[in-house]
Amino acid sequence: MEKFMIPTWTLQRFLRERERTNPESTGELTQLLASISLGVKIISQMVATAGIRGVHGYSSRINSSNDKIAFLDDEADRVLFDILQSSGHFGSIVSEERNDAEVTSEWSDEAKYVVAIDPLDGSSNIGSNIPVGTIFAIFRRKKEHRRAGPTDFLQPGSALVAAGYSVYGAKTSFVYSAGDGVHDFTLDPSIGEFVLAQEQMSVPQRGSILSVNEGNWPYWDQKTRDFVMSFKQEDSERGLPYTGRYVGSLVADFDRTLRRGGIFLYPRSTKHPNGRLRLLYETIPLAFVMEQAGGRAVDGDLPVLSVMPESIHQRSGFICGGVDDVEDYLRSIR
Ligand code: AHM
Ligand code: MG
To answer: What percent of the chain has pLDDT over 70?
Structure first.
């Protein structure tokens, strides 16, 4: 008979313990992460029941990036917005589904943090029973002006306080970093708690998986094509060929890359001259997690975390993975 595992480290307890041992902590970040994790639990249920509730489809609205908004995109955005607003700890929220940075409450001028979210990443996959997820980035508010708003978000990823993501797949995970490594929690649905799965995750320095949408081949420059082609040669010394994996949900492709290693690419191209993914709530938070796990993330040339955002819905190229894999990429495109 299976031994019953008693979950000694829930996310709540883990966060409280970190708060207790950090003399500078005011508890606000703990509250914020707890609020986000509550939103994630609710969204996980929404995703699991979307088919039964008949909300797999798209509304008639489009978002800031001209993508059609799925009903679930809307639901996930509303859940996170309402929970974060009621927590009273945020000055402002940027969401993929909202055109403008929104001030969250009457106390927003006092708030210490602002948050950028992709409420439901990969939502075009919802109808196909493919994992989707949530991505978040928490910045400290800039002090030089009073009203919380869009300029609070125009900071490089190196200034992030915390970031993370959830994947709604065979299990629901919550992976986050507050600048002290990357920690992985799994939702135990029987008790409704996130339970510690792994403390201090680290990405393998070199992997054996290539993750890229090769349908974009005609739009890539020759160096990108040559780099992708290089993984298809046989060379046992270099561990080639790599195997190919592309889910098409960034969170799922990223999560696999973090755990198994290898390289994920969504480079700039003639089809997406500035990249396809969004800087503030996709590539910056995931680059932060990747670097905290010992990996690397670049926008094509520069470390993603060094890029200064100029607008809240700015796009970005994204190449991330283990150190050796990303170094190979940089060598080959320079
Ligand atoms: P979104 O679903 O939040 O708009 O995010 C963009 C998605 C990512 O999840 C995924 O990596 C990418 O778009 C897939 O793009 P493509 O279908 O061009 O390969
Ligand atoms: Mg997305």
So the answer is: 96
Atom of ligand 1 nearest to the CA of 73: 3
Distance 58 CA to ligand 1 centre (A): 16
Check if 106 is active-site: no
Catalytic residue among 74, 75, 77, 97: 97
- Residue 312, judged by CB atoms within 10 A of its CB (0-12, 13-18, 19+), counts as buried
Give dist(CA 149, CA 86) in Å, integer.
18
Question: What value, to the nearest 5°, has the Cα angle with vertex 229 and ends 255 and 249?
Answer: 25
Tokens describing residue 28: 């606000």
Give the pocket of ligand 1 (CB within 6 Å): 67, 96, 118, 121-124, 213, 248-250, 276
Question: How far, in Å, from the CA of 278 to the mean position of ligand 2?
Answer: 7
Residue 121 designated active-site:
yes
pLDDT of 107 > 70? The answer is no
Cα 101 to ligand 1 centroid, rounded to whole Å: 22
Global model pTM greater than 0.85: yes
Give the residues across from 95 on adjacent strands.
Answer: 117
Q: How confident is the model at residue 3 (pLDDT cuts 50, 70, 90)?
A: low
Helical pair 250-260 and 284-292, crossing angle rounded to 10 deg = 10
| Strands of 169-283, DSSP E | 172-177, 182-188, 193-198, 209-212, 243-244, 263-266, 277-278
Does residue 103 register a pLDDT over 90?
no
Closest CA to 325 of 202, 219, 238: 238
Report residue 141 as tokens. Answer: 């508010």
- 50 three-class SS: helix
Q: Pinpoint the alpha helices (H) of the chain.
A: 11-20, 28-48, 50-53, 71-87, 222-230, 250-260, 284-292, 323-333
Residue 155 has pLDDT above 80, yes or no: yes
